[in-house]
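This part of the workshop introduces the protein records we will be handling. The question running through the whole workshop is how a given chain folds. To make this concrete, we reproduce a full record directly below:
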Amino acid sequence: MLPLEIMLVCVRWYVAYPLSLRNLEEMMAERGIAVDHSTVHRWAIKLLPVLEKAFRRCKRPVGKSWRVDETYIKVKGQWTYLYRAVDKTGNTVDFLLRARRDEEAARRYFEKAIDQNRVPETVTIDRSGANLAGLHAVNAERETPIKIRQIKYLNNIVEQDHRTIKRRTRPMLGFKIFRCAWILLSGIELLHMIAKNDMNASHP
């Protein structure tokens, strides 16, 4: 078995840069290390949930004004929806992959994001009726409702942020299993947050 350090390097490169598993196999071979591309995939599925859980404890608090949007991710030949949000300065709030784009998916995303972060004062969304209905469902259970804005240009910051995620998933040529897609996307989001300095370095 190869040392953990090599496993972590391969996994980091896979989710941090637009590389395919075949690219990584060739890159490691050039360094005298024989690693099958399917082995790198198994390492990623095993290690990324552990790394993401550890990062959650060190994540910086986000602001109280969120920009929420979703982007398309293909899984098993079908489009799924990656719900994402950043605050007004571009810090990642949270993310969630859902099979459908509807009120239930939006509500689940908002509940997860609120559970992992402070309750926002304002949430900006696009003209999606599903997102609006999801937020109304969340507000129905709150004494102080979250202010909702539907102003498209204010969401440019999260739409720009999508591009990094899409650039890294493109060489993967789609995902075959929903669970694996979610784990790998979580890893991509993790490395993206680290690159944006969303980690509190002083956290023990």
Remarks:
- The first strand starts at residue 65 and ends at 75.
- The radius of gyration is 18 Å.
- The domain at 65-176 is CATH 3.30.420.10 (Nucleotidyltransferase; domain 5).
- The chain has seven helices and five strands.
